[in-house]
Amino acid sequence: MKSLKNHLSFIIPLFVLLFAIQFSTMLERGIKKYEAHLTGEYTIVVVSKLPQDEKLVRKFIPQVKSLIEIEKQRYIEKLKSDITKADLVYLKANLPKFYTIKLTSLPDEKTLKKISAKLMKIKGITKVETFKKTFNKFHQFLKMSKMASMFFTIFIFLISLMLIIKQIQIWSLEHNRRMYIMGLFGAPFWMKSASLYKSVIIDALIAAVLVAIAFLLLPNIANLTAIKNDLGIDLSNFNFLGDLFKLVLIALLISVLSVTTIIVKQKNK
Q: What is the pTM of this model?
């Protein structure tokens, strides 16, 4: 029973640590995908008295992905029955050109201001509409999500790591007498510590597999579809083989480094 308790004392904090890392990774993936979607949907509208060329605009603003003129004819056609033919001709001749601009990446507020200022310097452009208010709400939400995820992961990582190290110290003290006797008989470092390394490696693998199973079951437990529909962020992006491999590597790295550090410290005392 004591042995099981000791193993659980190691597996549980490692599980929480890996869960936090994996959740942060999946949130980052979801936000990046959402940013890519938002970049594709986000459009700047410019009004110009003169025709504009995409290559020329891109010289001023390298972030420009496309410049497309908005077709005015269909809107003018709707006015045929409401205005005279002379007014219609005048309207066609004097109505400015409208363009939509799409960017290669999602800009922050500072970059958006620079883009707007540069567009206004282009000859012929009289107005730029960046939909700044709506855009800033989305951008602030993404920044807050990233910061919250980062702080959450760091906090959980530090707390869990302290618990893991504490448990390894307990194991090390329990194995200290056996390791000392083996040292008197000339046993090498790896042989004296083999039992301890074996325990943490097995527990690390168990913790990694449990986290992978948890994230496989998570979409059925939590209503991630509703989050995707409401916020547009897809959190059900767990890649079992790839993410499990990454979790195993992180678990083994943390466990082995922690054991090695504790053993070396006790050896030097």
A: 0.71
